[in-house]
Amino acid sequence: MPIRNGYDRALSWIDELGLDAYTPAYSTPTGAIFKIDAIEMLGSMPGDSVDLVMTSPPFALSRQKEYGNEPIERYLEWFMPFCREIHRVLKPRGSFVLDIGGSWVPGTAVRSVYHFELAVKLAREFKLAQEFYWYNPARLPSPAEWVTVRRIRVKDAVNMVWWFGKTDDPKADNRKILQPYSDSMKTLLEKGYKTKKRPSGHEISENFARDNGGSIPPNLIQIANTESNSFYLRACRERGINPHPARYPETLVKFFLNFLTDPDDLVVDPFGGSNVTGAACDAMGRRWLASELVSEYIEGSIARFETTPLLDPTRTKVADPGI
Ligand SMILES: C[S@@+](CC[C@H](N)C(=O)[O-])C[C@H]1O[C@@H](n2cnc3c(N)ncnc32)[C@H](O)[C@@H]1O
Q: Which is nearest to 173 in space by CA: 271, 265, 101?
């Protein structure tokens, strides 16, 4: 069970990170969440201390979420101060992974380019290691006016996930996120492969037929964000708590934890929401810190830590080798 409103003294590393003046809303053996402004939490922390910042901030949506969203025209001005703090707290080989959805120019069927403008601006302060696309096949068609009523646009089902390094060599290892081979690749591994030139001109060597334990994933990540029967939603309903309206899937977080961090590394989510990041870190033995402004979201997120006995020391080991 998480500890409410008090440090587990085992977490003295949090005090050492400049957060001794703040009382967490709750803490677990691996981390803590604070009901404070992200700028305050990040601003209190020393430079070069964080391995990964993984987050999904409020997007610049034309249809506002209940927690409030900055309009497109003010978005960069609002978001950049957080990014400067994120840059400062990252270790030299640390990463910043930013899940951000697209938007429409209000009242029109024209796409906003705010998330591309943001990436261009961030690429001047960070190094763009790679762009990922999170494809959510379960996304509902919207905006209804353009997609389901006038039928002049298609369903927008992809979020950009920008991966930035503080320097051009962020810690990463794609051998930790290998996917099962396809059936045709398995056959090829069994029967062998004859060296030949592809129509594209690429020379395919014999190394292609070497079994490396799995295939290297692409930068398109397919995860259906369907949590309708999950423990979290049920627990919120039972306790009369409003569930968070814009959660990202734990599988997305685990992908980047596996790829970019090691056990015990420190991961920070400044826009914690329902604390998916903290729960994923807890399951995988990473230390975590989060901030969130809305008490109800923090209250609901406690359910994520109640399904398994957190004080079991075996849970500090990596439990999930892949996604
Ligand atoms: C898109 S949601 C994050 C959802 C989260 N990834 C999850 O899966 O539950 C963004 C969150 O940022 C919070 N937020 C907005 N401004 C904030 C700030 N200045 N400091 C801390 N949290 C903030 C909002 O209340 C909202 O819960």
A: 265
